[in-house]
């Protein structure tokens, strides 16, 4: 981590309020919705992959307790995605790239929505977001921290 991020974390004094593991990874936004034609209109519809993730993750998250939330509270959300593999086995002979094309930024919204739905914290209150991906049993670890000193975010003095 860079020194700026460490300084920022020390300055905001985050307090852990949620630390949960979900044995599912949300689908990429590229595969979450499909265009459906209804007569002359086109609309977006959830794909089977997204419906399965929401259903499965809801069962895991149903026992998450609500966080005591005030209107002025701010949060740091950390999501650690784990995948079976991050690199291509066939590289360089068969695969075009050394790294598998796993786009974690397209999966964040569904993870945020899961936390928002089951913990009661609106995702608009997340002032910091950290994402990692690693090799392991497929799933994600979600950690939510309450940020106690967030004045720099309001007046733009975060350096």
Instruction: From the alpha carbons, calculate the radius of gyration and give it in angstroms.
Output: 18 Å
Question: How many H/I helices?
Answer: 4
Count the strands?
Answer: 6
Q: Indicate the mean pLDDT.
A: 82
First-last Cα distance: 15 Å
User: Class of the domain at 3-30 and 73-155 in CATH?
Assistant: Alpha Beta
Net shape: globular
* Residues in helices, as a percent range: 25-40%
Secondary structural class? alpha+beta
Main sheet makeup: 4 strands, mixed
- Within the CATH hierarchy, at the fold level, what is the topology of the domain at 3-30 and 73-155? 60s Ribosomal Protein L30, Chain: A
Strand order of the largest sheet: 1-6-4-5
Topology (elements, then pairings):
Blueprint: H1 3-12, E1 15-22, E2 33-38, E3 41-46, H2 48-61, E4 74-83, H3 108-119, E5 126-135, E6 139-147, H4 151-155
Helix pairs in contact: 2-3
Record keyword descriptors for this entry:
159 residues; alpha+beta; 4-stranded mixed β-sheet; 4 helices
Describe this structure in words.
The protein is α+β, with helices and mostly antiparallel strands. It has a domain at 3-30 and 73-155: 2-Layer Sandwich (60s Ribosomal Protein L30, Chain: A). Helices cover 26% and strands 31% of the residues. The protein is built from four helices and six strands. It has a four-stranded mixed β-sheet with strand order 1-6-4-5, with helices on one face. A two-stranded antiparallel sheet has the order 2-3. Strand 4, helix 3 and strand 5 form a beta-alpha-beta unit. Helix 2 (48-61) runs parallel beside helix 3 (108-119). The chain starts with a helix and ends with a helix. The relative contact order is 0.27. The model has no long low-confidence stretch (mean pLDDT 82).
